[in-house]
């Protein structure tokens, strides 16, 4: 650890160096105050970076329209720059660090001329938690500053912690000229450094989020014995007042925010069940002295998907969005309210690009339009989100968009099997990243775009938690997205997912025997609470059935996928796949 003061010296030196390279007109150190935020908003309302919304229905809320070519993450331009290509793995795009620095520094040369350079100290996680980590983002985008203010603990307290600790992640960002040809998001895990240019979009530009809290943090976590994951954290309180915490990894735009804010259906509510939101996107897990995994949400806000968020699907999110929110690339109604497909009320008059709405141009809101809002505004916000030690996990859930084959829910036999289930995850691509939508691909643990190192080493790291003294969470897999022959979802999802969480908790408590199958344990007939559920029995049977022939093919495809990682793939995982394959053959 560096001595007191030297860290700020290092920080100041880096800020000076960046200013010399990027040549801004002005350098502003952000303190995170309300007055600073209000000043930024006023400035952006003048420049057109923000547009006012209806101040009666949406106090202090604003619309941002991004460049139409800058609306999502860009995986092909996102690089992990380790000395050895193999350390980044086939799951990442790679460039040698020296080449990467040279390439991107040339783009940063003079990039901030005529602009203000903001220095943003931030803390990922509760400001006084030993698990939390700090960073500093330098950016020329006031929109990024405003979003970082909502998404992280930003400003003076973070700077004080950086001065005390002497360590922080360096993140340099410029919107550049927004030309996709000059857009890169580069990570240098060994230098705890991020450089991003050419995009103002969330995951590419809010460097505390995916770049720091997942790609850099996963690399640190591997060496320090913890896990940085693309997971929500939800607390479920039963009528007796016991709380169970569950973390769930679903790929981008596959239901984390919705499950984290779930409102139990009426029967559960009447019986006294409550659901608490700890986090909706990122989870840092650390083994505690008691052998359990303890989880914190490193973020302070939600950068959530707007489309599909309605009074019938996620009323908690709508309540959260009642004031002090930033909307990006949504449509607007005649009276200046934000609007998106699935909202359920209102009529769009202006689309996400600011044009008069014409259905011939596609959806009114961009499919990856988003809201940014403080987590504390959520009615189900869990006060334990601020607990320094985090919350203890009872279960980990994996899941993706699988239109066929994969049952509603099953439980892995043990930790190693659970790691295989997570590694084997598949999901249809979504609008959260540029490229084709609806293409089934492997997205191990929902970390394909976010793991800062070789997936084979990552799976080995996951397996390493299975050791004496650990009291590991149970591992489940869910699929809310099965479709029937007509392409309609077979499971109603959203609040009804409470029925699946309830079964998981009964499994944890030893109160549901389940039905063992070669792929894992599914609910035995009668175990899933279906009271008042509007799903035909034949559909429910189909949702919990294991199609042995289909799964034999799936396990073969998983084998091919794991083999793609060559020698580095842990034998334990290959053996686990073989075990499941053989069990399926025996059941045929
Ligand atoms: P990121 O922020 O991109 O990491 O996404 P996320 O995992 O938080 O996804 P989110 O909860 O925002 O959901 C994305 C889309 O899936 C939205 O359009 C939701 O309405 C839809 N969705 C969420 N849960 C369900 C569900 O249980 N069933 C169905 N059919 N759709 C769902
Ligand atoms: C995701 O794409 O998984 C998100 C949005 O949560 S972003 O922060 O842009 O990555
Ligand atoms: Mn995400």
From TrEMBL:
Keywords: Cytoplasm, Decarboxylase, Gluconeogenesis, GTP-binding, Lyase, Manganese, Metal-binding, Nucleotide-binding. Its EC number is 4.1.1.32. It holds the Pfam family PEPCK_GTP. The active site is at residue 254. Its main location: cytoplasm. InterPro entries: PEP_carboxykin_GTP_CS, PEP_carboxykinase_C, PEP_carboxykinase_GTP, PEP_carboxykinase_GTP_C, PEP_carboxykinase_GTP_N, PEP_carboxykinase_N. Residues 13-222 form the Phosphoenolpyruvate carboxykinase GTP-utilising N-terminal domain. CDD domains: PEPCK_GTP (cd00819). Pathway: Carbohydrate biosynthesis; gluconeogenesis. GO terms for molecular function: phosphoenolpyruvate carboxykinase (GTP) activity. It catalyses: oxaloacetate + GTP = phosphoenolpyruvate + GDP + CO2. GTP binds at residues 253-258, 370, 401, 494-497. Binds 1 Mn(2+) ion per subunit. Its cofactor is Mn(2+). Substrate binds at residues 73, 201-203, 252, 368-370. Residues 226-578 form the Phosphoenolpyruvate carboxykinase C-terminal P-loop domain. SUPFAM superfamilies: PEP carboxykinase N-terminal domain (SSF68923), PEP carboxykinase-like (SSF53795). It is found in: Cytoplasm. Mn(2+) binds at residues 210, 230, 281. Catalyzes the conversion of oxaloacetate (OAA) to phosphoenolpyruvate (PEP), the rate-limiting step in the metabolic pathway that produces glucose from lactate and other precursors derived from the citric acid cycle. Monomer. Belongs to the phosphoenolpyruvate carboxykinase [GTP] family. This is Phosphoenolpyruvate carboxykinase [GTP]. The lineage of its organism: Bacteria, Pseudomonadati, Pseudomonadota, Gammaproteobacteria, Lysobacterales.
């Amino acid at each position: 650890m560096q001595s007191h003061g030297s860290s700020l010296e290092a920080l100041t030196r880096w800020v000076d160096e960046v200013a010399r390279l990027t040549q801004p007109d002005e350098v502003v150190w952000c303190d995170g105050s309300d007055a600073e935020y209000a000043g930024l908003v006023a400035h952006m309302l003048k420049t057109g970076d923000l547009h006012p919304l209806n101040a009666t229905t949406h106090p202090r809320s604003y619309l941002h329209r991004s460049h139409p070519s800058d609306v999502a993450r860009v995986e092909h331009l996102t690089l992990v720059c380790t000395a050895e290509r193999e350390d980044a793995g086939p799951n990442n795009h790679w460039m040698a660090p020296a080449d990467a620095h040279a390439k991107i520094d040339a783009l940063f040369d003079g990039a901030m001329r005529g602009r203000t350079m903001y220095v943003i100290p931030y803390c990922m996680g509760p400001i006084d938690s030993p698990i939390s980590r700090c960073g500093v983002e330098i950016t020329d985008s006031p929109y990024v500053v405003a979003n970082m203010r909502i998404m992280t603990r930003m400003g003076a307290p973070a700077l004080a912690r950086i001065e005390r600790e002497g360590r922080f992640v360096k993140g340099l960002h410029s919107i550049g000229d927004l030309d996709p040809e000059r857009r890169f998001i580069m990570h240098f895990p060994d230098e705890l450094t991020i450089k991003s240019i050419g995009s103002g979009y969330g995951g590419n530009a809010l460097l505390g989020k995916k770049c720091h809290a997942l790609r850099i943090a996963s690399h640190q976590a591997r060496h320090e014995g913890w896990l940085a994951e693309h997971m929500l954290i939800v607390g479920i309180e039963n009528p007796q007042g016991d709380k169970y915490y569950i973390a769930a990894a679903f790929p981008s735009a596959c239901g984390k925010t919705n499950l984290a804010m779930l409102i139990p259906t009426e029967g559960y509510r009447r019986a006294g069940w409550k659901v608490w939101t700890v986090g909706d996107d990122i989870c840092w897990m650390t083994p505690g002295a008691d052998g359990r995994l303890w989880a914190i949400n490193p973020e302070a806000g939600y950068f959530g998907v707007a489309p599909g968020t309605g009074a019938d699907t996620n009323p908690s999110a709508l309540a959260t969005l009642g004031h002090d929110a930033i909307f990006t690339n949504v449509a607007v109604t005649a009276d200046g309210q934000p609007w998106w497909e699935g909202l359920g009320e209102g009529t769009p008059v202006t689309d996400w690009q600011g044009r008069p709405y014409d259905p011939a141009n596609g959806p009114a809101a961009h499919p990856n339009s988003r809201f940014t809002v403080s987590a504390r505004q959520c009615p189900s916000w869990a006060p334990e989100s601020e607990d320094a030690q985090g919350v203890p996990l009872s279960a980990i859930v994996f899941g993706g968009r699988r239109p066929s084959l994969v049952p509603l829910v099953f439980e892995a036999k043990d930790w190693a099997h659970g790691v295989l289930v997570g590694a084997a995850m598949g999901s249809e691509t979504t609008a959260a990243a540029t490229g084709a939508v609806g293409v089934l691909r492997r997205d191990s643990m929902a970390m394909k775009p976010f793991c800062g190192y070789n997936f084979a080493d990552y799976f080995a790291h996951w397996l390493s938690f299975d050791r004496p003294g650990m009291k590991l969470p149970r591992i489940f897999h869910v699929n809310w997205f099965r479709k029937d022959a007509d392409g309609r979802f077979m499971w109603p999802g959203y609040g009804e997912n409470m029925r699946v969480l309830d079964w998981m908790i009964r499994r944890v408590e030893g109160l549901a025997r389940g039905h063992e199958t070669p792929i894992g344990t599914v609910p035995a007939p009668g175990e899933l609470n279906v009271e008042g559920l509007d799903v035909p029995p034949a559909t429910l049977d189909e949702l919990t059935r294991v199609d042995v022939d289909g799964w034999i093919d799936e396990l073969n495809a998983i084998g091919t996928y794991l083999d793609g990682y060559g020698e580095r793939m842990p034998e334990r995982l290959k053996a686990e796949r073989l075990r499941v394959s053989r069990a399926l053959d025996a059941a045929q």
